[in-house]
Write a structure and sequence with these properties.
little secondary structure; two-stranded antiparallel sheet; 1 helix; 8% strand; rod-shaped
Length: 132
């Protein structure tokens, strides 16, 4: 009888050991908030502050709407456009930049005589060739 009891305990123990542990599903939720409302576009790195007039070339605008950069990019995957990074604080620019919610001045959105010095895609990567 002891052998049967020992066998039963072993079977019950084995069933507990082989029973799968319920796996918890990991969820990562990143809330980046609403797209900044900047008249001339916003920089492609956090904290996504508004870019100065002249930073983005005309290919970054559809009509008067900015195609976006970073998490809010609305363009094609192969999109590349020109920027003038001399208007970027990371490259020494310390001039005026608009605030979130400001409206564009009476100038056109894209500067008429834009001079780009760098190609970028909509996700913050430099390099590549102009495509649209």
């Amino acid at each position: 009888m002891n052998q049967r009891m020992l066998l039963a305990v072993a079977v019950v123990a084995a069933s507990f050991l082989t029973a799968g542990v319920a796996k918890a599903k990991a969820e990562i939720s990143v809330n980046i908030g609403v797209e900044p409302a900047c008249p001339y576009g916003y920089y492609d790195y956090a904290p996504y502050s508004c870019a100065a007039y002249g930073y983005y070339g005309p290919e970054w605008f559809h009509g008067r709407a900015f195609v976006g950069v970073g998490p809010w990019f609305h363009g094609e995957n192969e999109f590349h456009g020109q920027v003038n990074n001399s208007f970027d604080p990371q490259h020494g620019y310390n001039g005026r930049t608009p605030s979130n919610g400001d409206r564009a001045s009476k100038r056109t959105v894209a500067p008429k005589r834009f001079k780009g010095n760098e190609m970028r895609d909509g996700r913050g990567h430099a390099g590549g060739e102009e495509k649209r």
